[in-house]
C-alpha cells in the first residue's frame, strides 16, 4: 500500500498549538482549586449598621443599658471572627490526630469510601454539565462547542 501525500497545511496548524503536558495540566488544575479555596464568599449577616435592622428596632422601647450591651457583644463577636481561620479538610484531620485513637473508634480516616469501580464522570469547566469534549491544549472537559468558544476566549487567553 502506498501512502498518499499529506497536506502541509494541517501539520503547520497543529505545530502552532501549544499542548501542555500532564504536569503542567496538574499545576493549572491545582492553581484553580487554590483560587477557589481562597475565595471564601459568604452572604453578609445583618448587622446593626444596616438600615433595615435599625428601622426594625426603632419601633421597640429600648432600655438605657441595652445599647452598651449590644456594642460589647458586637465587639466580642468581631474579635472571635477575626481569630477564626478557614481550614481545609486536611488541616482539620491533622489537628484531630486520629492516629492516637484506638483502632475500634470510627473516624474520618477509617470510614473513607473505597474508590468507585465506575470510570470518573467528567464535567464541563464552563457550564457544569456532563462533558463530551476535551480541550486539546489544557485538557479541560467541555460540554458544548459554545462552552469551548467561551473557554478559548477566556481561559486560553494568556496561555496560548
Automatic annotation (TrEMBL):
CDD domains per UniProt: zf-HIT_ZNHIT1_like
Positions of the UniProt region annotated as Disordered: 37-56
GO-annotated molecular function: zinc ion binding
Name under which the protein is recorded: Vps72/YL1 C-terminal domain-containing protein
Short name of any one Pfam family annotated for the protein: YL1_C
Domain of life: Eukaryota
Alphabetically ordered keywords of this record: Metal-binding, Zinc, Zinc-finger
GO biological process terms, semicolon-separated: chromatin remodeling
Residues annotated as domain Vps72/YL1 C-terminal: 124-150
Lineage: Eukaryota, Haptista, Haptophyta, Prymnesiophyceae, Prymnesiales
Amino acid at each position: 500500500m502506498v501512502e498518499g501525500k499529506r497536506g502541509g497545511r494541517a501539520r503547520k496548524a497543529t505545530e502552532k498549538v501549544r499542548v501542555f503536558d500532564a504536569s503542567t495540566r496538574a499545576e493549572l488544575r491545582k492553581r484553580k482549586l487554590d483560587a477557589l479555596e481562597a475565595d471564601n464568599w459568604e452572604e453578609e449577616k445583618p448587622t446593626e449598621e444596616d438600615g433595615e435592622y435599625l428601622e426594625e428596632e426603632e419601633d421597640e422601647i429600648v432600655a438605657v443599658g441595652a445599647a452598651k450591651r449590644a456594642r460589647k457583644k458586637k465587639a466580642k463577636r468581631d474579635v472571635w471572627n477575626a481569630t477564626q481561620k478557614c481550614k481545609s479538610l486536611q488541616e482539620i484531620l491533622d489537628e484531630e490526630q486520629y492516629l492516637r485513637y484506638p483502632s475500634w473508634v470510627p473516624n474520618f480516616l477509617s470510614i473513607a469510601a473505597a474508590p468507585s469501580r465506575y470510570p470518573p464522570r467528567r464535567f464541563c469547566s464552563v457550564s457544569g454539565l456532563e462533558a463530551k469534549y476535551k480541550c486539546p491544549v489544557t485538557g479541560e472537559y467541555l460540554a458544548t462547542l459554545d462552552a469551548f468558544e467561551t473557554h478559548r476566549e477566556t481561559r486560553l487567553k494568556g496561555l496560548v
